[in-house]
Each structure stands twice: as structure tokens, then as C-alpha cells.
Amino acid sequence: MNGLKTDEDGDATGTIECGVEAAKHFAFAPGWRNLNHGSFGTYPLSIRKVLRKHQDDVEAQPDTWIRYTYPRLLTTARQAVSQYLHAPLETVVFIPNASTGINVVLRNLVFAEGEVILYAPTTYGAVEKTIDFIVETTPAQSEKVAYTLPASDEVIVAAFEKAILALRKTGKVARLAVFDTISSLPGRRLPFEKLTKLCREYKVLSCIDGAHGIGHIPLDLTELDPDFFFSNAHKWLYTPRPCAVLYVPERTQSLMRSTLPTSHGFVPRGKGEARSPLPPRTNGDSEFVHKFEFVASVDNSPYLCFAPALEWRSRITFDRLRGEEAVFAYCQQQAREAGKVVAEKLGTGILGDAVDLANLCNFANVRLPLSFRDDAGGDEGTAIKMAQWMSEALVEKHSTFMAFVFYDEAWWVRLSAQVYLTMGDFAWGAERLKEVCALAKRGDWKSG
Predict the structure, then answer these.
(1) What's the 3-state SS for 114-140?
(2) Whether 306 contacts 332, CB under 8 Å
(3) Contact 276, 264 (CB under 8 A)
(4) SS3 per-residue string spanning the chain
(5) Which class for 269: exposed (0-12), middle (13-18), buried (19 or more C-beta within 10 A)?
(6) This protein's superkingdom (predicted)?
(7) Which residues does 254 contact at the CB level (< 8 Å), separation at least 6?
(8) Which residue, among 273, 315, 343, has the nearest Cα to 2 in the 3D structure?
(9) 20 to 30 A Cα–Cα from 361, which one of 45, 136, 170, 323?
(10) pLDDT for 261-298, tens place per residue?
(11) Residue 187: what are its φ and ψ, rounded to 5°?
């Protein structure tokens, strides 16, 4: 146990070894195998203790805590974010989730005729629907860049560049490009650094959906220098839900005039200072920072768990590594090995090269042993229903969940590596996948 001492709340005073030992720090139900960390994340018991302490404090003296205590604590939390992301303090604020982030960005931008939003073909569904809404309610147009995974970084960057140039030939302009750090389904690290540079060269605003970013891969936002970036801390950093970060450099902060929902920090044109029920700015916060300090009456205590989550991560150990290096190394190695093990047991393959060092992340995508033509009659709607049935069957029959996606006429399972999992968990998961695929092939999904 490496001298680790824990109490019923998961407090720790020593190192935490990845695998079985780390699993003891989470609140999973007996028998539940959490093989889909990537969708919603989870957090250690010791962080739950921090969360509930803040929730108790606000109820003890609501006005005092919300008006005076919370802003000070929030600044401390933002300082932790600033250091972790290598970003100036005045550029980072907290928001509930990545969906809020894309809405803040798109609903603040003012679009003109002929301006186009470019986005990746693997863009998350809620993000694509937000783009659709903007197109429906403003003069903006949208265009999905064309490529299919697996595709090399060079192919992806070239596809975006081709789209930018093609728009220019028609008299239109790419106003904004939306792309991921790591796409959701299939889960694959994208060349977001190169895409950000491309946007800068062609004077296109870059908007990075980093939902799978913070805590998943190392990030240096000063070096990356996007125009907008948002990321969920509750997915991979081990903060409670909801907790996300919005980064906006000073050069584009004037474009972000309102929070979502619009709140006290909004300054209507020609009407002077914002009128807020909270104390005025006294600690040097910018107008941008101040408007996100109090948006609405919601539970903001997850934001205050960012630094404690970093402290917990600092105790993780793996193969002589500790802290962030240990977390990244264990999960990335596990993802590659898990992909191979599951693919071998299923008799299929992995999406792309599992050992592509340029695209290391905590996901592996393994093809399921099903035929689009024979098992789904070549009908995409049927294929999606089958995937939904298999997901539910895993929950009901085996007390686990795995994320399926029907992509490029094949079913894929997205494996999520994590510090509390072992290769034994993935070997077990492979057997369960074989079972549900056999049932789906037999047609059991039709009566589900």
C-alpha cells in the first residue's frame, strides 16, 4: 500500500498507486465496472469531502458566502487553473460545461452575410446543434469539413485549409473554425495545435472544443494561443460536475460581451458600468473576469474543487513517475494495450494506428464483430438502434457501460483508460462485448 492511509472520506496522506489501489478512492457501487469514464468523469472521495464542505458553508450563511467568501475562493481556484494551463490569470474563468462554452462563444459573435463557421466531421452533437441554431437565427452559414477517420494529421489540416480557400473563391469567408483537442466518438486526438496555427495564418478565429482536454493531455495555452478554448474539468481532472474552464485571450475578450445566461455583468452599449448585486471589483479583475464571477444562482462549489483535484493527482504514482506524468503515462499506455487486448478477443481491429505516438490519448476505438449489411440490413437507423440496445444490455446484464458509435459503416466501442482500471477490467469487458454482440447478431435487439 506504499504507506497510504485512508479514512471513510478517502483522505490520503501518502502516494496512490495506479490500478487497484487508486480504485479504492472512488465511490463505485459493488460490482460496477466504470469503463466509460470519458462521458461524464467521476471524482475521488476526498474531493467529495471538499465539495460538501463548501455546500455546507454556503447554507450556513448564504449571503455572506455568496457575496464575499465565494469571490475570494473563486480567484484562488482561477489561479490554480492559470498555472495548470499556463495561461494569464485574466484569461480564464469558470463555466458549467463545454456546451456552455460553445454557446458563450457563438452567441456572442456577430455574424454578417457571407461569413461561415467551419467545423470538423467528428464535432460533438451538442456543438453541431448549437452551430445549426446560430445558422438558423443569424446570417451565418456553416460547413462541415470533409475527411474520415482514421486520417493523418496532414490530411485533416489540409482538409481545413482546402475548405478555407474554397470559400474565398466563392466570395465567402471562414469567420470561425471549431475543432476538438480530442474528438468524442470516435475518440481520437486531433492536430489542434496545427489547426490553430492554420487559423492564425488565414485570419480565421480558432475555437477549440477541449471537452476532453484538461487532465487528459498536457496543455500550454500561452504557446497554443487559440482565440477561444473551453474544457471540462469534470471529465478527466477529477472535479465534481459541473466544472469547466473558458479561456479567452485579451485580444478577443471584447467580442464576449455577455455570459450565458446574460447576467449582472453585462454592460449595454452606451449605459456605462454594469450594475451588480455583488460588491464592486476590488482585486484588479478585468470586466471579462468580473462578468463571469456571478452568473446565476447555481451550485458553484465544483469550481472550488479544481485545486484539491490537482493535489490528489499529485499523489498518483506509476512506474517511478508521480503526479501528472504518472496519470498521463498510465492512461495512455493502458489505452493502447486495452485496444490490442479487446481487438484480439473480438477478432477485429483498432481505428487507426494504436501506437501512433503523435496522437496519444486515453481512448482506443475497437471495431465490433458485426456486419452492417448482414446484421443491420445496410440500414443506418437499424445500426444505431442495435448500438443503443447493446449499451443498455451491458448495464442490465453486466453492471457496466461502454460507449458505442456507428461510424463509417461499422460499429466501434470507445474504451476509456483510467487510473482506477487495470487490464483485467478490459479483458473482462471484452468478454461482455462478445456476449452482447452475439445476442445482437441473433436479433435479440428487436424485442428490446
Answers:
(1) CEEEEECCCCCHHHHHHHHHHHHHCCC
(2) no
(3) yes
(4) CCCCCECCCCCECCCEECCHHHHCCCCCCCCCECCCHHHHCCCCHHHHHHHHHHHHHHHHCHHHHHHHHHHHHHHHHHHHHHHHHCCCHHHEEEECCHHHHHHHHHHHCCCCCCEEEEECCCCCHHHHHHHHHHHHHCCCEEEECCCCCCCCHHHHHHHHHHHHHHHHHCCCEEEEEEEECECCCCCCECCHHHHHHHHHHCCCEEEEECCCCCCCCCCCHHHHCCCEEEEEHHHHCCCCCCCEEEECCHHHHHHCCCCCCCCCCCCCCCCCCCCCCCCCCCCCCCHHHHHCCCCCCCCCHHHHHHHHHHHHHCCEEECCEECHHHHHHHHHHHHHHHHHHHHHHHCCCECCCCCCHHHCCCEEEEECCCCHHHHHCCCHHHHHHHHHHHHHHHHHHHCECCEEEECCCCEEEEEECCCCCCHHHHHHHHHHHHHHHHHHHHCHHHHC
(5) exposed
(6) Eukaryota
(7) none
(8) 315
(9) 45
(10) 998 888 888 776 655 666 655 556 788 998 898 888 88
(11) -85, 110
Residue type, 28: F
The predicted model scores a pTM of: 0.93
**Distance (Å, rounded) from C-alpha 318 to C-alpha 16?**
9
Strand order, beta sheet including 228-232:
92-95, 244-247, 228-232, 205-209, 173-180, 115-119, 141-144
Residues 163 and 308: their CA atoms lie apart, in Å, by 43
Amino acid at 95: I
Comparing CA positions, the residue from 106, 259, 94, 91 lying closest to residue 178 is: 106
Q: What are phi and psi of 237, to 5 degrees?
A: -95, -10
pLDDT tens column, 392-404: 999 999 999 999 9
Question: What's the Cα-to-Cα distance from 92 to each of 71, 77, 89, 203, 247, rounded to whole Å?
Answer: 14, 10, 6, 23, 5
- What span, in angstroms and rounded, lies between the C-alpha atoms of 36 and 124? 17
The whole-number pLDDT of residue 276 equals 61
> Hey, what's the cell of 448?
428490446
Question: Cβ(186)–Cβ(149) under 8 Å?
Answer: yes
Check residue 287 and give its pLDDT. 84
Q: Which residues contact 57 (CB under 8 A, 6 or more apart)?
A: 65, 69
Block residue for cell numbers 450556513: 60
